[in-house]
Amino acid sequence: TGSLVVLDVKRGDIGSTAAAYADAYLDEDSPMCADAITVSPFLGFGSLMPFLAAAEKNDGGVFVLALTSNPEGPEVQHARTAGPGERTVAGTMLDHLRDANAGATPMGSYGAVVGATIGSTSEDLDINGPLLVPGYGAQGGTVDDLRRLFGDVSANVLPSTSRGVLSAGPDVTALRDAALRTNDALRGL
Does the predicted model carry a pTM greater than 0.85? Predict the structure, then answer.
């Protein structure tokens, strides 16, 4: 159908368990195979390598939680890392993604999850990869918020609005109309 399937599974683990999750969601022979998944970097960016490797092997994608739309997120995402060049946890994840996508054209397959409702950020969102943006629509994010927050990297934004569309159901025509209205609103992005 030309649609991309992104599973919002927020997986994160170490070693063989991470590899098993990666195979379950990204291996083309898996019954649960998707085009891309969301992953949690709480165990460190290095723990995500099995996911990145599976995405590369299967022409898939991975979206790493960085600046999420939930109000509890800043407690961890804005925390400062230790060591030289003290950064926020979110900034560190964005740096890792930028490095992982270096040299990819037109952009890499490793993206970040950045909420439409975070208000503002001083972080550099140009990671040479896609930005999965929840929070548009039902959570309060607007097209103006997307323009303001993402500016020069707006072309890399994949806005997500599940509730905003699904609340029009279960009537198929109403769902289709809601999806078309959303697409029309986002065309100006």
Answer: yes
